[in-house]
Design goal:
Blueprint: H1 3-11, H2 33-43, E1 51-53, E2 58-59, H3 63-68, E3 73-76, E4 84-87, E5 90-92, E6 98-100, E7 109-112, H4 140-150, E8 154-157, H5 168-174, H6 176-185, H7 187-208, E9 218-222, H8 235-256, E10 261-265, H9 274-279, E11 284-286, H10 298-305, E12 310-312, H11 321-324, H12 327-341, E13 347-348, H13 361-374
Parallel strand pairs: 3-8, 8-9, 9-10, 10-11, 11-12, 12-13
Antiparallel strand pairs: 1-2, 4-5, 5-6, 6-7
Helix pairs in contact: 5-6, 7-8, 10-12, 12-13
């Protein structure tokens, strides 16, 4: 059985030969660049490192590293324009968002939001990135077809060039304070802004995803609506403003890639709206943030949603066990999550989010080797 078949069976709630492993199939299941440098040095691999997401500083996982860790996925995404460096530690992306790089920080930080002072009237003056720019899809079909025909990876479409955000990106353009106030007291503006995002992402999907849809196993969307202790907004507000637009957009994506499964990345405690995700067509949820409220009991989550939802993540706690645990701790954690989530299919193994620089190469090797060892079907008790 090959990787593509393995992932597709998992997403269809069937047991393959083993649980598929995702390393770098999304920009949230990769490694921070500093982590990756240490890993390839530890493995004796010499390669040019490519960035997958400059904001998170996550990398594209090379074929050699993926093979070492038994990875089954490959990420492809539309081309994004390089950020403009405006000073030694400040950058502007193609949306007009300004970022700064502070010493010792793992991520970049947002410094300026282009729609911070916008109104309904001035919103029309904002110049959106052009979804029809030929550079978005330049070489994409050739790349994807090559991966499909010359490898057996399951191809995931998404990433930095196609985020599909209907919560995060509006928040970045507007600024957090303004955005959350808009949701409550500025309904005319927020409706106009969110509708423009639906139009933008839909247009981008038509241009970039539709020509390659037949090759794609999964499409990734990013919308963090959870925190460590609960949702960032009420379920009612989510259902009123965000959910209907997600449903409309996801339906369009399914038209572009009819055989692909839809994967939603949403950090935090999203337990209360998992049924809503299922209602709007989501097939798999990432990252299953194990330390968040109501998300730690993976056995309960599997029992409640496992017949309808694939768990793309939740393979190992990255807050404490992966960075600070012993190899024995990590192996036991992986064994537990496999026992909870793997039976009957519906599980793609990956830890919770990108692996950060506080994790040793030895622990990373232990993690993926344990996933390969304990992920074989049929599951032992």
């Amino acid at each position: 059985m090959n990787s593509r078949e393995r992932v597709q069976m998992a997403l269809s709630h069937q047991e393959a030969d083993r649980v598929p492993i995702d390393l770098g199939g999304t920009v949230m299941s990769s490694m921070h660049i500093e982590t990756y440098k240490r890993v390839i040095d530890y493995l004796g691999i010499r390669e040019k490192i490519e960035m997958a997401d400059p904001f998170q500083r996550s990398v594209k996982i090379s074929k050699e590293v993926n093979e070492r860790f038994h990875g089954d996925t490959r990420l492809v995404c539309p081309k994004w324009k390089p950020w403009t460096k405006v000073s030694e530690d400040h950058y502007i992306d193609e949306w007009g968002i300004k970022y700064y790089d502070s010493p010792g920080s793992l991520y970049l930080h947002m410094a300026e939001h282009p729609l911070a002072k916008a109104t309904v009237e001035t919103l029309e003056d904002y110049v959106w990135p052009d979804p029809y720019d030929p550079q978005r899809s330049e070489g994409l079909e050739k790349e994807v077809k090559g991966i499909y025909e010359n490898t057996d990876y399951a191809i995931v479409f998404g990433g930095f060039g196609f985020k599909g955000d209907l919560f995060d990106m509006p928040c970045r353009l507007r600024g957090h304070t303004n955005f959350y106030m808009d949701l409550l007291i500025n309904e005319e503006f927020i409706n106009a802004l969110l509708d423009k995002f639906v139009d933008y992402w839909t247009s981008l999907a038509e241009v970039t995803l539709k020509p390659i849809g037949k090759y794609i196993s999964a499409v990734l969307f990013n919308d963090d609506i959870g925190s460590q202790s609960g949702l960032l907004i009420s379920p009612e507000l989510y259902r009123k403003l965000i959910k209907p637009r997600q449903k409309k957009f996801y339906a369009k994506v399914k038209e572009c890639a009819p055989n692909a499964k839809l994967v939603l990345h949403s950090c935090g405690s999203v337990y209360r709206v998992i049924p809503d995700f299922l209602e709007i067509g989501i097939d798999a949820l990432n990252p299953i943030q194990l330390t968040a409220k109501h998300m730690s009991d993976t056995g309960k989550l599997k029992k409640e949603f496992g017949d309808r939802l694939t768990f793309w993540g939740g393979g190992c706690d990255t807050h404490s066990i992966l960075p600070h645990g012993t190899p024995a701790d990590i192996r036991e954690e992986v064994k537990r999550r496999m026992r909870d989530l793997a039976p009957g299919g519906g599980f793609v193994f990956t830890p919770v989010h990108n692996i950060q620089p506080d994790v040793s190469p030895e622990n990373i090797c232990t993690l993926y080797d344990a996933a390969y060892e304990f992920g074989k079907y049929p599951m032992s008790a």
